[in-house]
Specification:
Number of domains: 3
Structural class: alpha/beta
Strand content: 15-25%
Organism: Streptomyces ochraceiscleroticus
Number of helices: 13
CATH superfamily of the largest domain: NAD(P)-binding Rossmann-like Domain
Shape: globular
Pathway: Amino-acid biosynthesis; L-tyrosine biosynthesis; (4-hydroxyphenyl)pyruvate from prephenate (NAD(+) route): step 1/1
Oligomer: single chain
Radius of gyration: 24 Å
CATH architecture of the largest domain: 3-Layer(aba) Sandwich
Largest sheet: 7 strands, mixed
Catalytic activity: prephenate + NAD(+) = 3-(4-hydroxyphenyl)pyruvate + CO2 + NADH
Distance between the termini: 54 Å
Keywords: Amino-acid biosynthesis, Aromatic amino acid biosynthesis, NAD, Oxidoreductase, Tyrosine biosynthesis
Helix content: 40-55%
Order of helices and strands: EHEHEHEHEEHEHHHHHHEHEEHE
Family: Belongs to the prephenate/arogenate dehydrogenase family.
Number of strands: 11
CATH class of the largest domain: Alpha Beta
Length: 361
């Protein structure tokens, strides 16, 4: 791939353009908002100049509702040898394209499983896709050269290709992406009218659950409008669990010992099913989840503290698998949770204590 055009310079489009430009591909940028395209160009994502002829690959990075129209326009103008989109829904846009009677042999639907709560070109980074799954949904009538160009794009963005059927993809993202967004927003909405005293008690758990609730509503309306059925199916199952959990909690309030026992059993059931589901979430590098130990260290909120603790861990010869910071309410301090291999935890604890760090037991 030597040339490409990115149509739609939001978070995903600009990030892909930055990754391609960094690897020597000449990228042309187009957007219905010319100012947004110029912003992406100023960031080093490419040029707003029109290509002189057909480019190797057109990447359509617009909301799902506009994918078919943008692709159809690009195909009719012959802007590229191959075309793909990066929308988070796959079956609907393809059906729309088929209804337009277009030759779809030069097209493949794709979806990089990466994103942020923030949108727009200023949120974009060249490494957004590194190590992330990038779904490809080829069909029997697709051109092999188009699939190869899509795979090259994935490789240049350092993502991991995953081949799926379009409908299976839409059901999958309903479960692992679209429904979590709504559930996160619903939980966060409870905070809107909550007493200030309650809000001040927010800890890491509520921050984890509500992080993605900061996402752009307009963007999610576009996404959910393109995949309402599968999302509604998952939410219906969650609603059934919620009903059962509410009844179990009411049972725990009862004076009847049998009802309290049944209530406790119902709560235990949902928690254990949650344990089992959580264990299936892929771990580091997409591998099966591993059992790790957490070493929690008191850390001050001042420049250089993070660098110092990582350097000390490195001096101890310990690899940090993951990290999380738990902030202390109203204090210029908190705890950093260092996730390590179980065999490394005692050595790391001893080494950090020797260097003056306070370890939380």
């Amino acid at each position: 791939m030597r040339t490409a055009i990115v149509i739609g310079t939001g978070l995903i489009g600009t990030s892909a353009a930055l990754a391609l430009s960094a690897r020597g591909v000449r990228v042309h940028l187009a957007d219905h908002d010319a100012a947004q395209a110029r912003t992406a160009a100023a960031l080093g994502a490419g040029t707003v100049e029109e290509p002189e002829g057909p480019v190797d690959l057109a990447i359509v990075a617009v909301p799902p509702a506009h994918v078919a129209a943008a692709l159809a326009d690009a195909m009719r103008r012959g802007v590229a040898r191959a075309y793909l989109d990066v929308a988070s829904v796959k079956a609907g846009p393809r059906r729309e394209l088929e209804s337009l009677g277009l030759d779809l042999t030069p097209y493949i639907g794709t979806h990089p499983m990466a994103g942020k709560e923030r949108s727009g070109p200023l949120a974009a980074t060249a490494d957004l896709f590194e190590g992330r799954p990038w779904v490809l949904t080829p069909t029997r009538d697709g051109d092999t050269e188009v699939l190869n160009l899509a795979l090259e794009l994935v490789a240049l963005c350092r993502a991991v290709p995953v081949v799926m059927d379009a409908d299976a993809h839409d059901r999958a993202v309903a479960l692992v992406s679209h429904t979590p967004q709504l559930v996160s927003s619903m939980v966060a909405a409870r905070l809107r009218g909550a007493d200030e005293t309650a809000v001040r008690l927010c800890g890491q758990g509520i921050r984890d659950v509500t992080r993605i609730a900061a996402s752009d509503p307009a963007m999610w309306i576009d996404i959910l409008s393109a995949n309402p059925g599968p999302v509604a199916d998952v939410l219906s199952e969650i609603a059934a669990d919620l009903d059962e959990t509410v009844q179990a909690l009411r049972g725990l309030q009862s004076a009847d010992e049998a009802k309290r026992g049944a209530g406790a059993g119902g709560i235990e059931d949902v928690l254990r099913r949650g344990n089992a589901g959580r264990e299936r979430v892929p771990g580091k590098h997409g591998a099966a989840p591993a059992a790790y130990e957490i070493v929690a260290v008191h850390i001050g909120d001042q420049p250089g503290e993070l660098a110092r603790i990582f350097a000390d861990a490195g001096q101890a010869g310990v690899n940090i698998e993951d990290v999380r910071i738990e902030h202390a309410t109203g204090q210029q301090a908190g705890f950093i949770q260092l996730t390590v291999e179980p065999t490394a935890a005692p050595a790391l604890t001893a080494a950090l204590r020797e260097r003056g760090w306070s370890i939380r037991q």
